[in-house]
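Bug #77: duplicate submission created two jobs. Keeping one. Sequence:
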Amino acid sequence: MSRERIINIPRNNSSDSVWITWYDALKNKFGRKKANSLFTANWDAQGGSGSDANTRDLREHLKNKGKLEISGGFTGELKDKVFDVGNWIGDSLVVGKYVGYALGVIVLGGIGLFVYNLAKDPEKAVKVGSAIATRGMSEAVPKK
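Kept job's structure:
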């Protein structure tokens, strides 16, 4: 199986997944150093830097699996930065969602506690509610 993948040498118009599969087959057969050498030679010969295969996925795979770095060029690097900002925003939204859940639990818990106190001691609850509504002014005014 690995032999078929190795002899299926990617071309300039091959997708990034074909290049990734080919690199993995080379690495499994020859080891990282030889695979990096063969990959780089074919990548340069095919003009891979300017091809559609030069994606973030390919660059990350080569960096993580083979400690091989290929340039994404100006547009590739720009796309990577935009992608990183998008990931940061997505992560922030996920965190924000959980913060929203926590605040919702706190607010609903407070309302639930107020309703419980209202049912338990209505006069005290009305006194607290009026103090909150008047920002404490109802408690500052002397009672007659």
